[in-house]
User: What shape does this take?
Amino acid sequence: MNRIQSLPSLPPRPSDAHKGTFGRALIIAGSRLMPGACGLATQAAFRSGLGLGTVLTEAEAVPSVASHIQVATYLDWNEAGRRLALEDNLGFDALLAGPGLGMDPPLRLLQDILNSHSRPEVLDADALNLIAEKKLSVGKKAARIWTPHPGEFQRLTGILPSSDEERLHAGTQFVKDRGGVLLLKGPQTLIIDGDSRYALNPTGNAGMATGGCGDVLSGILLALLAQGLDAFDSAVLGAHIHGLAGDLAKEVHGEISLIATDLIDYLPQAFTTLS
Assistant: This one.
């Protein structure tokens, strides 16, 4: 195994850039009862440099999410189905599926969307749970980041590793079986790919063990993929920035009072450390 310790970097932003320069993303997230996860992921993506983003969610969830995230455009499932029927690929450079999606989205349509593109993607939260329950199936794809927390990893594999050695062994088998890049969340988040590369992320703190922080991470990862980083580099850099934003927030709010939106507030400062 080859442990990676250097931090990837984003390319400089050209002075003649436009919105499309920094990627177009499709965010399949949120539902009537869980619009917040979608909002957190979307806002984090834009704070992480995304150029353009379209949110695909339940029609009933659009007003709630849109009232907080004015920079995105929106699709509901009916419109997405109509566009796919017209062989419109929905126009994106990277895709995120899962935050707040719930366990009863239009599964056939979601399956069609996931199977009809070859772009990089992030699978998180309920997308992972739907796969674990065999309600959703995906083939192997190198340009995919899986982002389970330990409980989701156990549902996907039947294994709950504890030590770093166990996590590395189980993670190696996971990417061998399913392809892509695994980002196994937790203290010292593990990132591992099919080329026997791995990294342990040193940033982050216990205050981040609160609802919504994983949604923020998925948005960061999406933005990095959309800006052209490969899946492994996006996972390594995204985990670092996510944890660093949490560490910066901890200095002001402490661990007890830290909430997910604090991470988004400190993303600009975290990204400035890269320059």
Q: What stands out?
A: The chain has one domain: 19-272.
